[in-house]
Amino acid sequence: MFSEIRLALASCLGVALFSLAGCSSAPEEPWNTVFGTIKVDGVAPTGATVRLHYLGDPVKINQPQIAQVNADGSFTLAVRPPGEYAVTFFWPEISTKSNDEKTEGADRLKSKYDRVEKPAATVKVNAGETKLPAIDLKRR
Q1: Is 51 within 8 Å of 12 (Cβ atoms)?
Q2: Distance between CA atoms of residues 6 and 56, nearest Å
Q3: Domain ranges (residues) in the chain
Q4: Is the peptide bond before 30 cis (omega within 30 degrees of 0)?
């Protein structure tokens, strides 16, 4: 009986090791650096969030890469793979409590550009580095 158990365990161990050996994945694609600027009516929306949603695969659309907008309106982020991306944008109202604690509120642009279905822009990202055209959004 013990030899049967040892044989079964050895068989299971062999299958497990064979499965692991066969699961080597292909090397991941390199990240691509994206540089851009975004303004709202010519003003840099400091603290806003820019997201790039890959449009080539419906599963990856829900996994955007995210960047905060700097004081000059610039942002930098990394995405993969190269291809078409929807740029969405969210600029929250910030309120400060008496203890200097800041909280985010509603979107200053009333969610006008924060959906993949109605993005702020659609852009093409190339392999390596991509400088996006400047994006100038309107409040209305």
Answers
A1: no
A2: 49
A3: 32-137
A4: no
Alpha carbon distance 110, 44 (integer Å):
17
Candidates 75, 55, 48; CA nearest to 139 is 48
Q: Are 80 and 28 in contact (CB under 8 A)?
A: yes
Strand pairing category for 74-79 and 65-68: unpaired
Low-confidence ranges of the chain (pLDDT < 70): 1-27
pLDDT score at 92? 94
Q: Model confidence over 42-57: pLDDT tens digits?
A: 999 998 999 999 998 8
Other beta carbons less than 10 A from residue 104's beta carbon: 13
CA dihedral 34, 40, 43, 49 (to 10 degrees): -50
Quick one: pLDDT at residue 97?
78
- For 32-137, CATH gives 2.60.40.10
